[in-house]
Amino acid sequence: MISLPHLASLPVTPGQLTGLLAILTIVLMNISRGRAWYHLPSWEHAFGLVGLSLLVDGQYLGLIDAPREAMMGETGRIMYVHVPSAWLTMVVFLFTCIFAVGFLLTGKRVFDLLVESTTEVGIILSILLQATGMLFAKPTWGVYWDWDPRLVSTTVMMLSFMGVLSLRAALDDAERRATWTSVGAILATTSMGVTYMSVRWWRSIHQMQSSPDTIAKPMVLILRINAFAFLFLSIWLIARRWRIADAQARMDEAPPLPPEVTV
Amino acid sequence: MNWILRVPAVVSKELLIEWRERSRVSSLLFYSFALLLMVAFAMPDVRMLGDIAGGALWLGLLLASTRSLDQSFRVELENDSLEGMVLWPVDPLAVFYGKALANAFVLILVAAVITPLLGVLYHPSWHGQPWALAAVIVLGCAGIAGPGTLVASLTAQARGSSALLPVLLFPLVVPVVMASARTTILLFQGDPMGQVDNWLVLLLIFNVVHWSLDGLLFARVVEEAG
Fold first, then answer.
1. Could you tell me which of A190, A108, A104, A250 has the C-alpha nearest to residue B224?
2. Which one, out of A14, A51, A203, B122, has a CA that is 20 to 30 A from the CA of A248?
3. A160 contacts chain B (CB < 8 A)
């Protein structure tokens, strides 16, 4: 196995290099399009840049610097993807519910578009969560899938939000679609409580929720770095998806009538 | 709180429609009965039927519920009755609770007919109390009918509503189906660990949460439905 140096001993970290490369790409694109070199098209790209750099360094720390997990050995390193994706799935779906309530209270279109964006990003995160969970389960539990309460409830939560997107796709009227999607999202959120509490309510082979007190100190910092990387990248994805949804909504609005031509 | 006084009127209107179209309830009964037979045919060994009787009962009720819930709002779309209902001088809460109670009643009726049939066809052993079985049937059917009524109101006017209803409803009622099936199986096979009470409490909590929340959400749904 190739042994790589610890992150602190490197003159430039891989995350910093990735960030510099991304900035260089943006500068070159700006120059080639005749814009000012420092032009940032949208504010969310700043989150994307920081998130990408943090992710690269966080994963380097997880794979190289982090100590071997006492029980699971090298396999335990997958938790630096699995755990942040689990946290962010819950956070993003919680924001889906907050935006849905916001829409029902205010009727503002921005909340409806954010419900759509956060639902889609939440589903992507939950697919990542399930995929890494299955890869984690095979060497530790001996199977990719077990009918464990945590696994089943997470899948049910993902299906609930997929149902919301199906409902959204099946409605034509914009007002009705917005209201009913919000109602569906709030209903789907009720499955989150079962998912969160499943490891406490039932005898589960999945471990209980961890806290910084129950995790080794070097691992806590690495988990936090990866969690912030996932958070920043999620904000970037949600904002990008929101801009697409906003453009789509503007396009769907009836175009202005052409001026009357008198002959 | 005047809307509570209107709930019986909505329930009686719903049940009157069911009574006038009795073929709908009878088709639900035949559907559930046919499903019990199909499950038996699909099993590799008929001696296993006693073990899976509880699960088969709730699978049958869940599938029957999708048909009855879909119908409960489909009839409102005929002759623009939904618009008329929205214009009623009645609180939407009364409409929701009236419809949900009527849907729960129809499901309980189906359960009351197919449970004895299940006993005859599947030969499950019996170790429970009749009141516990009655409680799980009432709580389980109410747990499906409460969120089911709200979901049916959402999907009734969407494209492909018949397919969309289960897509939204099934993930939502997984705790109900799981708790009801496990409780019924424990009542059939015995409960040495005393788990029945815990499952019934879970069913009760689910019902309290959904019957409170769904009524409030229904008001917003019908505002857009008319």
1. A104
2. A51
3. yes
Q: Which residues in chain B are contacts of A170 at CB distance < 8 A? A: 155, 158-161, 164
Residue B154 touches chain A, beta carbons under 8 Å: yes
Q: Mind listing the pLDDT tens digit for each residue in B66-112? A: 988 888 887 777 777 777 777 777 788 888 899 999 999 999 999 99
Residue A120 lies in a domain: yes
- The residue type of A121 is V
CB B135 within 8 A of CB B200: yes
Q: Tell me if B220 sits within 8 A of A106, measured CB to CB.
A: no
H or E element: which one contains B102?
helix B92-122
Nearest residue of B to residue A158 by CA position?
A: B171
What ranges do the domains of chain B cover?
Answer: 3-225
Range of the domain at A146: 42-205+217-249
- Is residue A89, in this structure, part of any structural domain at all? yes
* B128-164 confidence digits (pLDDT tens): 788 899 999 999 999 999 999 999 988 887 887 778 8
Task: Please state, in angstroms and rounded to a whole number, the distance separating the CA atoms of residues A206 and B150.
Answer: 33
**How many independent structural domains does chain A possess?**
1
Whether A156 and chain B come into contact, CB under 8 Å, resolves to: yes
Interchain CB contact of A200 with B (< 8 Å)? no
